[in-house]
Amino acid sequence: MAKGHGSSIKDDKLYGDLRDEGMSKEKAARIANAKAAGTIDHDSTPLEDRTRDELYDQAKEIGIEGRSDMTKDELVEAIRNHR
Question: Taking a C-beta distance cutoff of 8 angstroms, is the pair 48, 24 a contact?
Answer without folding.
Answer: no
